Amino acid sequence: MGHCITVEKLGIPTTPLVTRAFHELAIGNATKRGMPHARITFTPHPVASKTPEELRAYVEGKEPFTGEPFMATIVGALTKPLTAEERATGPMKVASGPERYGPDTPDHLQQFYLDNGMTDYLPVIIPTEEQVTAMLAGTRRKPDEIVGRMAAGAYEPWEYTVRQVAINAVMAGCRPEYLPVLLAIASSGTPSLMSSTNSFAYAAVINGPIRDRLEMNYGIGALGPFAQANATIGRAWTLISKNLGNGGIPGDTYLGSLGNNLNYNNLIIAENEEASPWSPLSVQKGFKAGDNVVTLFQGLGMVPGQGAKGGALWDGHHEKQISDIFKIFTGLFGAFAVLDPLVAQDLKKNGFDTKEQLIDWLFENTRQTVADYKGRHFYDGFDLPRALNGIEPFVSWSKLPDDALVPYWPSKDFIHVVVTGGQTNAFFQAGNLRHVRSISIDQWL
Amino acid sequence: MKLNRRKILSMLGLSPALLAGGKVAAQQPPASGGNLIEGLNPKGNPPPIQLVPLAPRPASLDGKTIYLIDTGFAGGGLLLQEIQHWFERNMPTVKAIFKRKAGPYMEDDPTLWQEIKANGHAAIMAIGH
Predict the structure, then answer these.
(1) Across the interface, do B50 and A92 touch by the CB < 8 Å criterion?
(2) Between these two residues, A267 and A383, which has the higher pLDDT value?
(3) Which pLDDT score, from 0 to 100, does residue A316 have?
(4) Exposure pattern of A136-168 as b/e (b: 16+ CB <10 Å)?
């Protein structure tokens, strides 16, 4: 929608074509960009995957909302004189509601927050003034300090303060000592709910001594519901994304076709630095050992790995198993391996002295044919336009024959390895997740 | 060397969360009658919106040049080409030019926008799936 408004601003009458499935989204998007009366023409849904003959029927058929011939609607959008509303300029009033709700009973308020899309549809802690004040004791930052801005996609971002982050932290069930982690995440402007029709998943890896101060779980069941900090930090990230970033509104700021169960509380990983034979992820990202850091990832989700044959701890060739799993991933996102310490220790025993050596091996030994590469969903929408724009390695890859082999990822930077878990067996999991950014938690203490 | 309990548990493969305490008693639901409280608004601050007027429209498309812009969404290009054929069949005085916007769908293409401003009178842009 932004491109259409850009062209309208240049004095060129424009009609955006949108399928009927995105009716509310398109109007909402145009409104947020200052053009609530943009002359949008809707088509039947879907357009993708239709043959030229089927699309010709769309063109010669009716516009689904006006009931007029489709092409007459287009011609009208480009030629009918403007109304007073369409010529209007000036500010449009926007607000996100009063400062507080009530007084009312806790049950009624609970239902109010749920009915108004402010929750994840699980019960929340009602954020009273007293509880928010207690939460704010978790940081030295001032309550009215601006933390950051967040957008759920191609929208203008919303802005928020330390106090507003604290309100969401209370709702999620966080303790005050978790607040600096949430402020670090919120300061990045990274939402855990993305507007894409794909159903994104998000992860946060936490390094440093704060893991123990928050009593985070990086032992048995490290990725499961077995510690308050792991559970509620991730949950608060999603509430922040909904309430502070205006994300997660189905049909408006969220379009994920299937949705993603990880969005409830995201994948919060405290790295098991003590049992890992390698340096922490935060050090790989340029921080000093001992710094408290949160590193965010974005992508499509996680899949389990079965481990080496027989769960062998000798010559298990976990690297081969991991690279095999990576081959189901799309190169648009990264590869993210979560290893139990037993796997990491075995890999070290087999010659991978550092994470970087393992990443090098995985990059060099995960290959696909050009035919497979070009057949993937994201090729036409992302890599082909980059190739046409002269961006490497997409230009070179696009010129290779179909049977040539190319890496899954443009560079080794797309592969990450973290170590966590309770060492009950030599298992791993892997995700199609790419690095977004790493943020110091210490600056928010 | 002094080891803290969390580190010892981790080395044994046990969850450090076990140290969180043994409190297991369930909390009772809050009383619903007479206990009135206020809840704070968890929403952030939306950006201000400035209304943008639409571009003036021509009285008709006769003799005009229309750009058909494919932004990269799957199927959008084929749909626009069918629209181009419709103009050829039904409004032959309209010059309908098909263009693929450079870059992935969300990236700007100021070169194309300037071309449209210089040579075009209207635009049709496929932006949804």
Answers:
(1) yes
(2) A267
(3) 59
(4) bebbebeeeeebbbbbbbebbbbbbbbbbbbbb
ipTM over 0.95: no
pLDDT of residue A331: 83
Of A65-74, A302-311, B54-63, which range is least confident?
A: A302-311
Residue B62 is classified by DSSP as T
Dihedral (Cα; B104, A152, A148, A332), 10-degree rounding = -40
Contact A210, A441 (CB under 8 A): yes
Q: Do B20 and A160 touch (CB under 8 A)?
A: no
A171, A256 Cβ separation under 8 angstroms = no
Interface of B with A in 77-96 (CB under 8 A): 78-83, 85-86, 90-91
- The candidate with the shortest Cα–Cα distance to A359, out of A341, A374, A370, A344, is A344
User: Residue A324: its pLDDT value, please?
Assistant: 82
Torsion, Cα A122 A108 B39 A267, to 10 degrees, reads 0
Query: Does A22 sit within 8 Å of B129, measured CB to CB?
Result: yes
pTM: 0.78
Yes or no, beta carbons of A99 and B61 under 8 Å apart:
no
Q: How far is CA A419 from CA A275, A288, A305, B9, in A?
A: 8, 18, 14, 16
Reply yes or no on whether the pLDDT at A19 is more than 60. Answer: yes
Report which secondary-structure segment, H or E, holds A102.
strand A100-104
CA distance A55 to A222: 50
Smallest Cα distance from B25 to chain A, Å = 16
Residue with tokens 């049909």: A251
B108 inside 8 A of chain A by CB: yes
Condensed to tens digits (0 to 9), the pLDDT of residues A20-38 reads: 988 877 887 898 889 999 9
Judged by a CB distance cut-off of 8 A, whether residue B55 touches chain A is yes
Residues of A in contact with B58 (CB under 8 A): 13, 78-79
Would you say residue B14 has pLDDT above 80?
Answer: no
A249: nearest Cα among A203, A172, A166, A193: A193
Q: Can you tell me the mean pLDDT for A170-198? A: 95
In angstroms, the separation between the Cα of residue B17 and the nearest Cα of chain A is 5
Tokens (6 digits) for A401? 């024959």
Q: The tokens of A388 are what? A: 């046409």
Q: Which two tokens stand for residue B121?
A: 């009178």
pLDDT at B23: 30
